[in-house]
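Deliverable D5.2: sample structural annotation.
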Amino acid sequence: RSLSEFPGKVNSVSFSQDGQTLLTGSGITGLQGEAAIWNVASGELVRSFTGHKDIIYTVRMSPAGDIVATGSYDRNVILWNAETGEEIRTLAGHNDAIYDLDFSPDGKLLVTASGDTTAKVWDVATGERLDTLGQPLKEVYSATFSPDGKTVLAAGVDNRIRVWQLKSTDHVAINPLLYARYAHLGPIVALAYSPDQQSLVTISEDRSIKQWNARTVEQVHVFEKQPALCTTVAISPDSKTFLVGRIDGTFQQYSLQPVAESTEEVAGMSTETPVYREVDDMQSISEAEPNNKAENSQAVELPARINGTIFSADGSGSDSDLYRFTAKKGEQWIAEIKASRDKSPLDSKVEILDIAGNQVLRAQLKAVRDSYFTFRGKDSFTSNDFRIHNWEEMELDEYLFCNGEIVKLWLYPRGPDSGFRVYPGEGNRYGYFDTTPLAHALQEPCYIVEPYPADAEVVPNGLPIFQLYYENDDESRRRWGADSKLTFTAPADGDYIVKVSDVRGFQGSDFKYELTVRQPKPDFKVTLHNDNPVLKRGIGREIRFTVEREDNFEGPIEIHLSDLPPGFITSSPITIQEGQIEAQGVIFAPADVAAPTEENAKSTKVIAKAMINGQEVVHDVNALGEIKLEDANPEITMEFVPHISELTVNPEDGIQELTIHPGETVSAMVRIERNGFDDRVQFGGDDSGRNLPFGVIVDNIGLNGLMIPEGQTEQAFYLTASKWLPAQTRMFHLKANVGGGLATVPIRLKVVRRDEVAQTE
């Protein structure tokens, strides 16, 4: 059966939930829109709806069958009584055409997709706008709810699938973004969610069809290239097949693939312990020319220290020195150059080659989000103010690939005039995977990337897949100037070549170097700062710890303080978290504490310990020194009191505790008692929460940071946790700019994941 007598092109066709009626959306461009309900069995027109001032693009019936919703080029959504055809209300708020809309499974909410680059969630009963989903970068063509009503999805011209957790179910609320997945080379025309909640299907203007794991938004399958543009997609009620309709009037049915058969490797690199073998003592070797090609590479036994010169006999061209060695699969070797530190003019570069002289692939980097530098470019040292496009959809600890350099995101932008900080968070920035930090121009492309092993099968998504080889120009932590350091893990048993050259192609008789190839010796050295603390009763002093990590050791380090004078409180053990370089603790003097004696004032012991390759390693830390207690009253005393969130006291140790869930915000109040100090009390800016877990920030600090204004005695502060944060417990404190840096008593922050709470209930 065919239906006709439409006023213009039909843009939308959908069935009612019971399948007995069909809805169509049509109209005349610039004049009016018309929707209609048709009886499926007879093909007769049941009712028409007119009221839009332009053509209708989308029409849907509510699950209960009592309301029809239409969206038009006139920027409005109209809700109609399905029985009478009367208009119930108009939903106004979009600034461009409405391309798609959908009811939630319970019919209480409506989501709309618009050319104004937003999707919006509406309350059907009241017409109230509950949230604007503003993350899309371009026009939104498709929007829908998950079958369980827990998430809302949208896709469109920016080629991405976005998934939000639905929180605005009965009140205005922000729906947090869960995923933003780059999906197609071209704009996404439509997406569909399978009734069994296992799969998503997307169709694109690039004539591709893709199936996705609905839970993780990972690609499951790419279907055959389409002969014409697909304009619509629908999944069968049994979730086994789907239909696509094409612009040339044809349609085709496909079978959904089992979600468990995703061909993509799990992102991430191997964390296996490196293979170590017994080796002889370090050999000292001199370079033997010629050794500038794979076939005449100089054979060496490892470990070795080699003295050489980048200089060819005739002085023409550019020289390189190649040394051949044998390694077993999984063995790690570090190749490091000492040249510029000895005043050599050599700007070294180190590479690992196979026996034929080809570079050895280290990893594959799959771009999952594209971006570019905004506001200004970057020099090759700075670790702060990385201003990049679409930063809101990026997370901490993600890798950012910038023209060969790989950095890692450390702290979110904290205001309109700021950018990301990258690791280590201060000072010269780190390069990862032994890449060397470089200068970057304004508008230069950059990408969030996920690393995969060299031999992994990586499913393309339309963004680049970068090949990363074993090579290094300048040591990636920027400690050695122009000297190189490279860590190599042998992918298989065999012979390999380490190549030394000048990165500029220069050479000379004075371009001397010392190449050391050795097994890694991961280790750490912790340094205590702020020794010999001077306290007053009722306040604390911060002690700060920094660590120098060696040979790729990135694990957590526990610092223990023991044998303090009786009555003094400390936040020990203090943990320097994985990959971090600093932690802070507190020594606090309660109001009733007795003064230290001459004997116990200097008795505090400090040690640091960590697990390295399965073995506990313990190091002494430099001494805390003498703890002094002055009798004078401090300028202020400080305490934490409840605000909106619950602040409890642990009955075992009397320490206050605050609980936070990943992706959420909690609050507390800091209250002070002024002892003759009437000025402003400041607790810092983005560093105002001292020793917070990585991924938790003091939010809403404004331009002036966290502070208590003159004449006031309390201030609320808010802690926000990143959604990926693992469960943990950590002591934190605040430090004031009064009396040389007075500190609060430490408070315990407990990070509890919602999924873990559900499992224990």
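Annotation notes: The chain has five domains: 12-261, 283-360+478-518, 362-469, 523-630, 636-759. DSSP finds one helix and 60 strands in the chain.
The annotation will be released with the project's public dataset once the embargo ends.
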